[in-house]
Amino acid sequence: MPHRSLASELPLTAEPAPVDDRALEERLSRPTPGVVEAVRGIAGDVMVLGAGGKMGPSLAVMVRRALDVAGRSDRVIAVSRFSDHAVQDRLHANNVQTIACDLADRSAMAALPDAPSVIYMAGQKFGTARAPAMTWAANVVLPALAAERFRGSRIVAFSTGNVYPLTPANEGGSAERDAPSPVGEYGMSCLGRERVFEFHALRDGSPLALVRLNYAIDLRYGVLVDLARKLLAGETIDLRMGYVNVIWQGDASAQAIQCLTYATSPPFVVNVAGPEVLSVRDTALLLGERLGRHPVFSGEPGREALLSNSSLARELFGPPAVSTSQLIRWVGEWAARGGSFLDKPTHFETRDGAF
The pTM is what? Predict the structure, then answer.
């Protein structure tokens, strides 16, 4: 699949970008018909482990909204340390129950209520280069504790496209059948997380789905936001990782939730990523046009990049509800309007896997 600039593909008329954080949260958590159909097919409560991060709250609310549409009163239970109490308040306002829990605490993990369906989202990426032992503990030890505690439950575990090697941009990215070959300790630890969940699924017969995500975009963070913020600040854009995949976070959440119905033993594996291989240069130029800024570039695009082929996901779940071209337009509108940002850069330009 060749890269595409999308310069000629921006729709003239399309759903407008959310105007503020409240509207954005509503859009991020809006369930698709596929999500509603999926939750009709599963029984009992749904627990989201590691629900306090960037993606977890809106995913948990999406499950709740889908259950409501399906006429189901089962609980959605969000579990995290919840260092930010505002996240808990937002979840409570949307009828999601919360439990404050350190997942590294064996006794606290054991005290969690049973749940026939579990979505596992905990993990650590940034800081790996400085404290690799912490990353391995977060990405391998904690999954082992969770897999043991929820033995027999249906589990969807988030992973990452970082388990794949860099691949030629003109080949469309790594597919699920390709052998993992991570670059750097973060990717290695994520493969370790997969292997731990896989071991328990095979040993216990627990149904498992592994979701290799690459890269989810909220309007407040993500690769496109990184580019928009550099443009606004007049900062140089590094082109060494010259190609990326991006997907609207709401679509990524929707596909992950639907994976509950595909969980099996041996595990089901799926890449959740955008359909295009985007040129970073072309995308920055397009955003620059929308923001009235001219990009400043450094470096040359490498022939290879961290890319995932999402053909299987599109076959199973259909195309993303928010197209890549619409997402670029949304990010441009949000940034131009002065929308809020999370100050959590993705460091997508990193080529050596050292985060």
Answer: 0.94
